Amino acid sequence: MRAFVNELALAEACAVAHPHQAPLDALIEARRRHPVLVERLYCARGMPNTEIRPGVRLAEVGRRLPRDKRVLLFQWAGRKGPFIEDDRQSTDDDLFLFDGEDVTDLGLGEAARRILATLPAATLSPVQDPASRFAADPLCVVHGLAEEPIDHVPVANFRETEALADALLAARPEPATWPELLAEARERFDRLHIGGHCDDILARHPYHPPGGRRILALLDVLQRLMTEMDGDGRLSRAGAELHNRFFVGERSWFSGESEGRKNSPETFTFPDPDGDGTLVCFWHGKVSTPAFRIHFEWPVSPPARRLRIVYIGPHL
C-alpha cells in the first residue's frame, strides 16, 4: 500500500496550529521514528507551495522549524521524495475533485487514481480540528465533473501517523525466506549496516517466521535508537527513554555478554561490515524461538551514522 500526504489538510492544520509549524514538526518527527513512512508516504512536488492562507506557503512555515528538521523537510519535499509525479497512476478522464476543489495533482487525486486501478492507497490528513472537512474516513473523491460525476471514490484516510505506519507495515507481504527478510531490513532500516556475514550464517538454517518477525522488531528498535543519536553518539531524551526501556533490566530485549563469556572474545569476533577488519561485539538482541542472537557494535563509534550489525544467527 502507498500513502499520500493530503496537502490541503496539512496546510489547514498549519493555519490553525500554534505555532503554525507544529504539524510539520510532528510529521518530520514521525518520519524519523517510522522508516516505513520515509519509504511509502508520497507527496506532490508542489507541496511546499501549498498556501496555508493567501500569500503564506508551507515552505515559509517550514523555515521556522529547528535546523535539523528543516533540513529533513526540504530534503524530502524538495529533493528525495518519494513524489507522486515519479510514478503517477494513469487513468482516463483525469479530473478529481474533493468538496468542489480540484485535487487531480494532489495526494487525494493520486490515491483515488490508484484505488480506481484496484491498487491499495490511503491519505494522511493531520487535522487539528475534529470538525475539519478532512477528518472523515473515508474521504469521498469525485471522479469527473461535479455536475456529471463518473464515479465517487472512497479514499481511506488516516489522521494519526502512528496508525498509518502500523497499516503500512501490516500491508507489506511477510518475508518467506532469510534473503527476503534481510532485503526488507536493509530497505527499511537505513541507519543500520547489516553485514554480509549475517547472510552467510542465516543461509545455513531454515527460515522460521516467528523468529523473522522478532528479528525485524529488534532491528526496528535499533533503527529508532539511531535516529535519536547525534554524530558523537549522544542520545536525545527520546533516545534515552528507548535505551532505558529496551537495554535495562533482567528481561530487556538487548544486553551484553556476562563477564565470564567476555573472557572468550574470539567467540564474539565478527567481520566488520564497513571494511576488511573485525569487530568484537558483546552486545546482542535476543530471539527466543529459535534461540538466535543479533550481535551489534555498542557503543557506536563516532561519527555515529550507522550501527553495524555483525551477526544474526544461533546463540553462540
Explain the overall architecture.
- 37% of the residues lie in helices and 20% in strands.
- The chain has helices at residues 7-16, 22-33, 35-40, 58-62, 67-80, 107-116, 161-171, 178-188, 196-202, 209-227, 237-247, and strands at residues 2-5, 41-42, 51-53, 56-57, 96-98, 101-102, 121-124, 139-144, 149-158, 192-194, 254-255, 269-271, 278-280, 284-287, 292-296, 307-314.
- It is elongated, with a radius of gyration of 22 Å.
- The longest helix is centred in the last third of the chain and has 19 residues, at 209-227.
- Strand 14 and strand 15 form a beta hairpin.
- The mean pLDDT is 93.
- The protein has 316 residues and is α/β, with parallel strands linked by helices.
- Strands 2-1-7-9-8-5-6 form a 7-stranded mixed beta sheet. A 5-stranded mixed beta sheet has the order 10-16-15-14-11.
- The chain contains 11 helices and 16 strands.
The structural class is: alpha/beta
- As a percent range, the share of strand residues is 15-25%
SSE series: EHHHEEEHHEEHEEEHHEHHHEEEEEE
The whole-number mean of residue pLDDT values reads 93
Assembly status: single chain
Shape: elongated
Counting DSSP E segments of at least 2 residues, the number of strands comes to 16
Rg value: 22 Å
Major sheet, described briefly? 7 strands, mixed
The end-to-end distance, rounded to whole angstroms, is: 38 Å
Strand order of the largest sheet: 2-1-7-9-8-5-6
Can you tag this structure with a few keywords?
single chain; 316 residues; alpha/beta; seven-stranded mixed sheet; five-stranded mixed sheet; 11 helices; 37% helix; elongated
